[in-house]
Specification:
single chain, alpha/beta, Rossmann fold, Hypothetical Protein, Haloacid Dehalogenase-like Hydrolase, Chain: A, domain 2, 2 domains, 9 helices, 14 strands, magnesium ion binding, HAD-like_sf
């Protein structure tokens, strides 16, 4: 029996009126309410920070897996898988290559975003945020190498194209720095500690909840959900996803509400 459904945010739970990140639709809200009233558990698994869902919902979640598994929040407690201690200056160069404008942001456990130089276009975009697209940070600060105590959580990297992103991912793997690059889009990487990914984060959250793997279902829509689709038998992909992502999930659905309806139907058939 499926006892818990772990749900992605952008493009999944927050997909509304055809927009990837617009809020929780009434259909999804009512379906979640029915699921939880019936005793089901619902959680969040996202590449965003663990606290991002609070912008859209005050609902109590069984667990929240953030930053693709780098942080887990459950029962008022928080577990962080920080990046290994490294020379950040050299790491920045490894990820950005010889073009400083491609150097990226590093994120602290407090969800401050650190920029190598606030004059770089990417950093300016985070700071000025003219379109209101960047909602997931507390503040943007310039990186200060004199603060060795500053713990880093994840690294976000946006590249000009997919080839650039793939080259950086391969270079990082070859250097064996104890880091792992997760594709969140064809040209965007999230760098986390080796062994960390969304599926592993969900498994860890499930253990904390006393759940077996087969008691967990996952709903997602993007490349970073692929490990979830391969790890959990009960997997759902949004119909709006790329075909190669959809093909890895057991079911394709139009909404989280539809996924929850299938879960309830499956549970009834198994009981």
């Amino acid at each position: 029996m499926i006892r818990c459904v772990m749900i992605d945010l952008d493009g999944t739970l927050l997909r509304k009126s055809g927009k990837k990140t617009a809020g929780i639709s009434d259909e999804n809200e009512h379906a979640l309410q029915r699921w939880q009233v019936a005793g089901g558990l619902a959680g969040i698994a996202t590449s965003r920070s663990a606290g991002y869902i609070q912008k859209y919902s005050s609902r109590t979640w069984a667990a929240v897996v953030g930053w693709n598994g780098a942080v887990i929040e459950q029962g008022g407690r928080r577990w962080l898988r920080p990046l290994p201690s490294r020379d950040e200056r050299q790491l920045w160069r490894t990820l950005g290559g010889d073009q400083p404008e491609n150097w990226v942001t590093m994120v602290t456990p407090d969800n401050d975003w650190l920029a190598y130089d606030l004059r770089f276009p990417l950093a300016r975009g985070y700071c000025e945020n003219p379109l209101g697209l960047i909602q997931d940070h507390r503040q943007v600060l310039e990186w200060d190498p004199r603060r060795p105590d500053l713990q880093l959580a994840v690294i976000l990297a946006v590249y000009p194209d997919a080839c650039f992103a793939q080259a950086v991912s391969a270079r990082l793997l070859a250097q064996d720095r104890g880091l792992h690059a997760i594709e969140t889009s064809s040209r965007t990487l999230m760098i986390v500690r080796a062994g960390v990914d969304k599926a592993q984060g969900i498994l860890e959250a499930g253990r904390k909840l006393g759940l077996k793997r087969e008691e967990i279902a996952v709903v997602g829509d993007d490349r970073n959900d692929l490990t979830c689709f391969k790890t959990f038998e009960n997997s759902f992909c949004m119909a709006s996803a790329e075909p190669e992502v959809r093909d890895e999930a057991r079911w394709t659905v139009e909404s989280v509400a539809e996924a929850l309806a299938i879960v309830q139907r499956e549970n009834k058939q198994r009981s």
